[in-house]
Each structure stands twice: as C-alpha cells, then as structure tokens.
Design goal:
Blueprint (H helix, E strand, L loop, with lengths): L1 H56 L5 E5 L3 E5 L7 E4 L11 H5 L21 E4 L5 E5 L2 E2 L18 E2 L2 E5 L1 E2 L24 E2 L3
Antiparallel strand pairs: 1-2, 3-8, 4-5, 5-6, 7-8, 9-10
C-alpha cells in the first residue's frame, strides 16, 4: 500500500516538473516573439522617417499667392513674400554680410538637386556666399524680408539698401485655393519656359 502511494507521489512530482518545463519554454518563445515584434516596429519607424524626409525634399520650393496691391507674386513654402535685389539695370546685386540677416535667402533644400516649383514657374539655382545654393527666378536670387511678420505682408517692396532696390517677384502663374499654381510640382531649370516676370 505504501509502495503504491509512493509511486503515485513520484509520478505526480514528475508531471509537475514536466509541466513547469513546458511553461518555461513557452515563456521563452513569447519573449522571442516580443523581441521580434519590437524589431519590426523599429524597422517600420525608420522606414516611415525616411519616407517623411523624402517627402520634405520633394515639397514645393516656392508657392504662388495673390497680393491685393502687387498682383500675383512668389512666396516661400510658408507663404512669406519673396523678393529680389537688383540695380538700376535690373541685374542682381549680391546680398552679403549684414544684408543676409535682414533678408534671409531662399536656399535649396538639403538633399534636393533642383528646386521644385508649381506649374508655370521655372526656378534655377545660383551660388551664394560661402558656396550656399540659392534658389533663383530669372537668374535673380530670392529672399524673404525680416520685416514681414505674416504671409499677407510685403513691406519690403520698393525698399532701397545694400546697393540696390528690393522688389517682390511677380509671376503670371495662376493661383489656386491652396496658394500654389495648378498642375502640381514642376522641377525645371530651363528659364526659356518661365512665366515669371521681373518687370515692375
């Protein structure tokens, strides 16, 4: 009788040990699965960040907006008015030193090889101070004005300083409700097709 009871106890103990081992193994598998899932999430996040960066590089470099006084003009991606600095003959005047702090230039986005513009607007890239790549229209570098606090402002029009006169960059491109010309983006460096006008 005692022998039978002893055997039952031994069998029960063995079963408990086997069950415990199986549960531990399952726990290890779950941990491996969690680690794998975490790795996939990290990869997806990295992929998403890369897509976002690529999207920024492909965004429009300029937009088109309507000013009630000046007509249809170019603006930066944030909607701020864009200007050029020219001499009496209409040629570009270099903006350097203190000028750059008051009139920040529109630079080519990091990772981009050409500026992207709305349909009907052709842009080029010119070399600026220190080798900076500046976005230009009709060969004239484009600048924003520190005196403009909102997209509705164009306080820099007609101001004289730094060896020339500042003017908004006008365009014949049509304006859509979103503030950009219709037809999507059009990266171009061919100025013979431009509809941008620097006549004031």
């Amino acid at each position: 009788m005692r022998t039978t009871v002893g055997r039952r106890l031994l069998m029960t103990g063995a079963a408990v040990l086997v069950l415990g081992g199986l549960m531990a193994a399952c726990g290890d598998d779950n941990n491996k699965t969690d680690t794998g899932s975490g790795g996939s999430t990290t990869t997806a996040a990295t992929s998403s960040e890369s897509s976002t960066t690529a999207g920024k590089a492909a965004a429009l470099t300029v937009s088109v907006k309507k000013n009630p006084t000046l007509g249809t003009i170019l603006a930066d991606p944030a909607g701020k008015t864009l200007y050029t600095l020219t001499d009496g003959s209409g040629k570009a005047v270099a903006c350097t030193g203190q000028c750059l702090s008051l009139w920040p230039p529109l630079k080519l986005a990091a990772g981009a090889t050409t500026p992207s513009s709305p349909m009907g607007v052709a842009l080029t890239v010119v070399n600026g101070p220190g080798g900076a790549k500046l976005v230009a229209a009709k060969g004239l570098p484009l600048y924003t004005f520190s005196g403009d606090s909102s997209a509705a402002d164009a306080h820099g029009e007609g101001l004289q300083g730094f060896g020339g006169t500042w003017h908004v960059m006008k365009t014949n491109a049509a304006v859509t409700r979103s503030g950009s010309a219709p037809g999507g983006s059009n990266s171009s460096t061919t100025e013979t097709t431009t509809t941008v006008s620097s006549t004031y």
